[in-house]
Every structure is written in C-alpha cells, then in structure tokens.
Amino acid sequence: MLEVGLQVDKKIDHFQADCYSPSMAEELFTQIEQRRAADEAVRQIELLLLDGVLSSGDRLPGERELADKLNISRPVLREALKELERRELIVSRHGGGTYVADLIGQVFSKPVAELVSRHERASRDYLEFRRELEGYAASLAAARATPDDRERLAAIIGNMRRAHEAQDFEAELDADIELHNAIGEAAHNIILMHTLRACYRLLSEGIFHHRRLVFALPEAREQLLAQHEKIVAAIAAGDPEAAREAAADHIDFVARSADEALRAEQRRQIASLRKIQRESAKAAEPAAPSTKGKDR
User: I need a labelling partner for 62 at 20 to 30 A (CA). Which of 157, 166, 178, 208 fits?
Assistant: First the structure.
C-alpha cells in the first residue's frame, strides 16, 4: 500500500532538498532511495506538476528510462504510476505511453461557459478580473523572475514580433496567450499560475470573442505588441510597479478596444440588415401598370 499521508521526517526533508537541487536545471527527475520508493516517486512527479514543470499533455519518459532516472525498479515505478493515474494526474494510452492529464482547471462548467459567451457583460467582468490578476502577476514576476524566466519572455516577444511582421494573426494570438502564461509562471506563485492558466483557457477555447475583434481594429495589433514589449521590459528591469502599471494599461486598452470593436460590428450588422430590408421591400413592390396603347 502506498502511504498517502504527508510525513515530515528526515527522509522527506532529504528528498525535498534533492527535488530542488541545482541538478534540476539539467534533469527533471532525480534518483531516490528505496525506502518508501513508490511514495517518493509519486511525490517527486507531483511536485513537477504542481510547479508547472510538467504541463497538461506532456509525455513522461518511457518506463525503463524513468525507472533509471528515479533509481527504482520498474515494478515500483508501475505502482507509483498507478497511484498517479488513480489521482487523475496522468493517463496511460495503450501502446502510446504515459501523459500528464488535463490539469488546467475549468473555471466554469460547459453550460455556464456557453452562457457567459453569449453575454457581453461577462466579457467586461472577465477583463476586470484579469486586470487585477495580471497586474499582480507582472509585479511578482518583476521581483522574482530568474534569468531563465527572462530569457523565455524575451524569446516569446521575439516570436510575437516575427508573427506580427509576417501578418500571421493566428501565430500572434498564440504568442499572446503563451506570453501571459509565461508571466504567470515567472511570478513563482503556484496558486496564481494555475488560476491564470484556467483563466486563459477561456480565451484559447473561444469563450470570449473580443480578442479577434480587437485584432481587426486599425493599428490595434501595433499597439498590443508595444504594450506586451513594455510589460516584458519592466519585468526584465526588475521594476514591479512599472510592470503592474504596464499590465493594467494593457487590459484597459483591450477593454476599450473591445467595446469599440463591438460597436463597430453592431453598426455593420445593422447596416447590413437595413440593406436587406430595403432590397426585400423593393422586390415586393407591385409592378407599375402598363400604359401601352392608352394614347390611341
């Protein structure tokens, strides 16, 4: 039987030290000793999931490789993986390996998500919620980001610029979400990180449509790119207040632009309906009576 309860003893302390040793920069999995080996294997993988090192859909190493990395037998590894699967943290695909389960929490049930998507007021509240979370995340990232975090943010901004220059809207939208997730990770607060991941899933699943509307506005993409660059620059400079302000300004711009885009779309639809009605009314008018032969 696996030991489920948390046990605070010297062995666990030693294990935790191993988990967060400098070797983690090169190896995700570290060797563990045999006492309570299955429990410790479970714990090590759980920590990688909790810290966002392993993400939804990531494939774990093969059984032989993972057992070697953890310095445990394959039967013990199978026991650990079985427990992780019971906890719904991983999924095994027959003949296809073992993968991290879909761990991004659902903010809403499907019916509520669909309800939210049909009402614009929910979009405004969503942006208000994001404004506070993202401002806090950016300020923490400015204070806590590591060199690896800053390097990743710079790389994403580079990808975003290239997508922008190539007029690749989809790639630019994808980079937008990736950047905000990376800022959440650079804040190094696991609750905030997982909350933001769930928040951004609503965007990736198309629950809120303002992103595409905003991108369609003249010069909006240029302004969005500049805002993202300003957030990353503040984080790189280690300026929490500037990072918070830049993140808040970005969401304020998105909110204003979303309202403007929505009004423009509504005007377009109304004008189109009026045109259809005029054409229908004209087609329904009775033909004018013929005057042929009346002058004779």
Answer: 178
